[in-house]
Structures
1.
Amino acid sequence: MTTHSIQLKKNQENTIELIDFYNQATEDYKFWSNDYNMHFGYFIPFKTNPFKRDTMLNEMNKQVLKRLNIHSNKHRLVDLGCGMGSTMRYALKHFKNLIAYGVTLSEFQLKEGNQRLRGENGIIIKEDYNQTSFTSNSFDSAIAIESFCHSGHDIKSIKEAHRILKPGGRLVIADAFLKKSPSKLCYGSKYAYEKLCSHWNLKRIEDINKYRDVLLCNGFSDVTIENISLHVAPSVLHVPFAIAGFVLKQLFQTKSLKRESLHNLKGSFYALISGLHLNSFGYYLITATKA
């Protein structure tokens, strides 16, 4: 077997594992968010309640959409790795001129997400965000909230987002990144990084400095990178309490935990540990415009 064939087989196995992970673990997110927001939140002092998780999670939706500069004209939005479509529903509620499309590999997310979008001007389709069937230059904006990390912040994701955006269209990414290359991480940071990738089926997490160059070299301009780690931290601190509550509830109801649920919970724990290593990890909002 050639090196190319081995790598191809490995990529296919990783994709299958990721699909299985989301098919089985997505329903667990009901415990994290009543709105099925499958991401961390954005805290603003005296505006969002740090004790009410969904207010922070929906504020993250608001902050991402705010950076798209959606006006009153008809606007086509695509969510690349949309999960259950929670950000799409939030967007459609606040922008009546919007047409929203979501992309996921999960059959469960496809079915349940479209049920929740029923009657709305939006739809979720089952496709790989690295290689969609959308025509080129077809969207006014694109978002990726904690989704590109699952393909290792691959250059393919950036190229595909650029292809389907109209000239002048905006891409907003909300995600965790490394502040340095993995080889330069201290022992504790490296351990947390490896465990986080393992339990959340992440190929890798990219160095934020390199990612800026990737965007600029692949047709994007006006790249703005905001470190919002301190805004995200209060929602991350919910993790241990959410984990404890979920485990107790599951054990009381079923006496056991699914393998995917256990991986999801461990991944959440290592996300918390990673957040404590401020010199190695950060959470960023990235805004880029198709030139």
2.
Amino acid sequence: MTGVLEAWRACVQSGALDADPSQEDAARRLGQLNAALDAWRPGGGLFARKSAPPRGVWLHGPVGTGKSMLMDMLFERAPLIEKRRVHFHDFMAEAHAAIGQWRTLDSKARKRRPEYVRGAGDDPIPPVAKALADRARLLCLDEAEITDIADAMLVGRLFEQLFERGVVLAATSNRAPSELYLNGVNRQLFLPFVDLIGEKLDVVKLDSGRDYRRRVLEGEDLWLTPQSEQTRAHFDDLWRRMTAGAGEHEETLTVSGRAVPVPRAASGCCRFGFESLCGSALGSADYLAIARRYRVLFLESVPVMGPEERDRARRFVMLIDALYEAECGLVALAEAEPDRLYTHGDYAFEFQRAASRVAELRRALPE
């Protein structure tokens, strides 16, 4: 398999990406990390000496500069079997839940658990970190952001334990690590985490002053209709260009303790069929979580709906409202124009409001 830098250069050569020195430097550093991972011998072996983990990488820069795309390229090409890519918010929610669960166990039950750490006493951080480290030697965290004091208090001790257990971290964020949790309550307690990042990772700024996603979709009508071989080919081409060669993967969002599967995700974009989003029991909170997580939603097979499909029409309205509120872009493949999708039924008036919002979303990504 080609390396990260070679994969990025292939995208430039094909026209999927512009030649961007900032992206190239980041791709080069991620390629070096991949090479170091390939040479790393974390567990040693009969004739091999255990080696120290390589330094990780923290990419930061504005929306649309290619952080998630490059993270996808790294993850897809990482030679480790024990690797994991997860959104930072979901990772922290998982850690908090595991801590809460550990605290409910008595001492006998704790000793029977595989993540039990001798000498940890009542401290839940070491066993939770052990459980997380056992799942992945390479941990790729996307869109790190600290807004919650509970996360700010936990993150330093948790990652100190993860690093002690040999976990290699690659992360992305819109802000530099030193600017996370800025002006937050008791921020001084968060600053050791910033120092830890500087010690264990190379911090790489990714900012060319361009939003490559906006360039791809510039001048495009993002509502493709009617559904035909031609419009589907165009829809697929926009997806390929937006994801710029990054490998697709499944993701799972956690919303109020429930799992919301995302069947196809890459480079900060997600792709759903209409039925999986609007034909299943999802609500406003689910749609808002999706809209806040991804920069662009690709929605295919949007049908014309009759009066008996009021629930699907209602969910579509909730979806459009969430995209609009979260400033998430929409690329859709549909049977008809938005105002012709649901014209007869007791939800038609509300549906027309959503259709008018689609008129704004279809011309460009939100600012």
